[in-house]
Amino acid sequence: MNWDWQVFCEDTIERQVVQGCFGKNGDITYLDWLMSAWGWTVSVSLCALVIALVVGSIIGTLRTLPDRPWTVRLGNAWVELFRNVPLLVQIFLWYHVVPAIFPALKQVPGFLLVVLALGFFTSARIAEQLRAGIQALPRGQRYAGMALGFTTFQYYRYVLLPMAYRIIIPPLTSEAMNIFKNSSVAFAVSVAELTLFAMQAQEETSRGIEVYLAVTGLYMISAFVINRIMAFIEKKSRIPGFIAAGGSGGH
């Protein structure tokens, strides 16, 4: 098997090797294209992650509010809707169906629609994790906040949520890594991310092995960086002995 990594130094029009592998004077090489696709993948993933964290935190909190049955039902409905519909189906709904219902969205870039679809899909999973984290806390923490005269908002803000987030950092790490992998479905609506690059570059160059190995490597690097960032956050926010105590005290 002969591998030709020089394919990434070729320009995308004439297929001539470019010195330095990066295009000049308007030329675009496959390496330029690959880096641009990686940028789109990172952009989609990080924007969707921000939406997922914000919305997931709100929904997860709503599902644990005491004496608020309708907010709990609303949160449950959100989770059931977005968690049980395949992501690819949701992206097509956001891209084709939602703009037809709301014509103003026809002017919204496909990038933003993909970010919303991926963010809401992941928010349902984060909401479930946060609900579990809050319910795993010892009941005494909630009662202590109430005894101090805190409102519901205050004891969630200052007592429950800071501790719950510490508990769910490991599953949040998995979701942050998954969102990079799930961003690959954006190719279905022509967002120029890594998977779309791989499909098109392989067709043009007939060098599928090199192309897919490079794309796979970039996905692995992205996931590894997120993993290390989350591991650093977990290390800095860890409370020694808390998780074991919390797990037994929540019953």
Main attributes of the structure:
mainly alpha; 251 residues; single chain
Give your account of this protein's structure:
This protein has 251 residues and is an all-alpha fold. Helices cover 71% and strands 0% of the residues. It is built from 10 helices and no strands. It has helices spanning 30-62, 69-83, 87-101, 110-135, 139-147, 152-167, 169-182, 194-205, 208-237, 242-249. Helix 1 packs antiparallel against helix 8 (194-205) and helix 3 (87-101) crosses helix 4 (110-135). The radius of gyration is 23 Å and the shape is elongated. 31% of the residues are buried.
Structure in a nutshell:
InterPro entries: AA_ABC_transptr_permease_3TM, ArtM/GltK/GlnP/TcyL/YhdX-like, MetI-like, MetI-like_sf. It is found in: Cell inner membrane; Cell membrane. With 251 residues, the chain is mainly alpha-helical.
- Percent strand equals under 5%
Low-confidence stretches: 244-251
The percentage helix is: over 70%
Outline: elongated
Tell me the number of strands.
Answer: 0
Q: Describe the main β-sheet briefly.
A: none
Encode the helix/strand succession as letters: HHHHHHHHHH
List the helices and strands and how they pair.
Elements (H helix, E strand, L loop, with lengths): L29 H33 L6 H15 L3 H15 L8 H26 L3 H9 L4 H16 L1 H14 L11 H12 L2 H30 L4 H8 L2
